[in-house]
Amino acid sequence: MREWGLVAAEELRRIVVISPHLDDAVLGCSYLMARHPGATVVTVFAGRPDAYPEPMERWDALRGFVPGDEVHVARRSEDEAALAVLDAKPVWLDFVEHSYLERDDWVSPAAVVDHLSETVGSLDPTAVFAPFGLANPDHDCTHAAAMLVRERLGPDVAWFCYEDTGYKHIPGLLAWRIARLFRAGTWPTPAAVPVAVDHERKMQAVGCYPSQLRALEADWQISAKLAAPSPEQYWRLAPPPDGWGALSER
Ligand SMILES: [Zn+2]
């Protein structure tokens, strides 16, 4: 009982953060990365669409991009700068955000899992931090794919979910996801992960995504939420204690 909530130092020796987009890991896990230099951030939806639509996709227009811009190149370089502030390094996968695609072409977790599993596995992590995957289809897909990777990597890797900044404030959605995981026998429990709560450094990293911030401000009033200040809670995913499983059914 005294151990509940604690995270052993060995578990955090090699951290991988799975990020849906180029910004989510920094928005949700800055204090974690600030405390544990050398983390790797694997961003799933960092790819280029076959063609950028004209007129520009709504968020790209909000971001200030204009036709002809190579949006993913600009956003990858923002990501590199942001992660450098936190002594973390990026790995970018080439999946394309749903907003560029027709509904039938949206990327599925089954399409992501092999590549994600190989990438995360090759980093030999001791702990993986995945998004709860709320509301946005790319976040939902990333979460589902990460849960499949969790099964493949086996019990020696510690798994945590982090709260999707912005989306976690949508009424009920974080509770909905947690309830689903709970009922599936993966009990998400807040963990006391050692972090460095350096708000200035976080804002310096977040500030490396100027294009994202314009759109996040327009749709989510992100600055008010980051200024609150926004806590970063990480939830450990693990089976229930022996004999407690029946609680999932009630
Ligand atoms: Zn996102």
Bound ligands: zinc ion
Looking at the chains present, what oligomeric state does this protein adopt? single chain
Order of helices and strands: EHEHHEHEHEHEHHHE
Number of helices: 9
Uncertain parts: none
Radius of gyration: 18 Å
Give the rounded overall mean pLDDT: 94
How would you write the strand order of the largest sheet? 3-2-1-4-5-7-6
- Residue share in β-strands: 5-15%
Q: Rough shape? A: globular
**Helix content percent band:** 25-40%
> How many β strands by DSSP?
7
Report how far apart the termini are.
Answer: 23 Å
Largest sheet: 7 strands, mixed
Structural class computed from helices and strand pairing? alpha/beta
Could you name the key traits of this structure?
250 residues, alpha/beta, seven-stranded mixed β-sheet, 9 helices, 7 strands, binds zinc ion
Architecture overview:
- The chain has 250 residues and is α/β, with parallel strands linked by helices.
- Helices cover 40% and strands 13% of the residues.
- It contains nine helices and seven strands.
- It has a seven-stranded mixed β-sheet, with helices on both faces.
- The mean pLDDT is 94.
- Bound molecules: zinc ion.
- Zinc ion (ZN) binds next to loops.
- Residues 20-21, 24, 136, 139 line the site of zinc ion.
